[in-house]
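Sequence dictates fold. Next comes a concrete instance:
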Amino acid sequence: MISDFVVITGFSGAGKSQAMATFEDAGYFCVDNLPPEMIGSLADLFGHEGSKVERAAIASDVRGGGYFDGLVKVLHDLDERALPYRLLYLEASEPVLINRFKETRRRHPLAAGGSVEAAIAAERELLAPLKERADVSIDTSELSAARLRKVVADKMLAHGKRGRLAVTFLAFGFKHGTPRDADLSFDVRFLPNPHYEAELRELTGRDPAVIDYVEGSDGIAQFYERLRPLLDYLLPAYEREGKSHLTIGIGCTGGRHRSVVIADHLARVYGEGERYLIDVVHRDADKPPRRP
């Protein structure tokens, strides 16, 4: 008998394949690109007493063509028949979706020779009633593939025995917007800004000259002396609470210098001993500097 039945849907390019991989890794029976009309039959099959499938996840989206229009009705039928399921909905901002299609050179399922922008708009209209029904919605705009898997696991998988806590240090620039998925954020704009040093402006926090400048700044040692004990307390506390992934934002003005140096420093510190799974994201480091 099935104990957990998950339906995954959302925008094309929003990360459904990565979400599916998360469930596969957790031992779920997974089916990708399933036409909605088959969902009910599959749920019935899994519900039979002789079924050996205890947990299943299926993905259904606009790749199903005209069949996709019936997904809302199928989910309503499952409700009427008291067949329990959970709906996971994935989305991302339009610019991010467009960039993902450009980078992968994939054709949007609804493009049919038209623009990706028009296809996304049509998809948004189709998906609107599904978003309202979702048990869990995740905006993947600022999530790498690895981080998306961790977020899906944290929100959708049962809290049992966990692996190491995955910690992402996310360097960002406030002028480009604060990250939506940061669990903790620290503003380091109180430190001297390398942007105003002509020889450093075009460099980033990955360059030795900028690293030396930031690590030698007045106030940096005191900042680390206060931040380290706080993180030393919080990270184990999040582990005890059952959290599998933690995103720590480090923000400066443009996200190119100070935040990059500090995020890299913290990643080195907390990557020692392999207690945590450490990831570093320099979200805005490669964006051109603003002219003074």
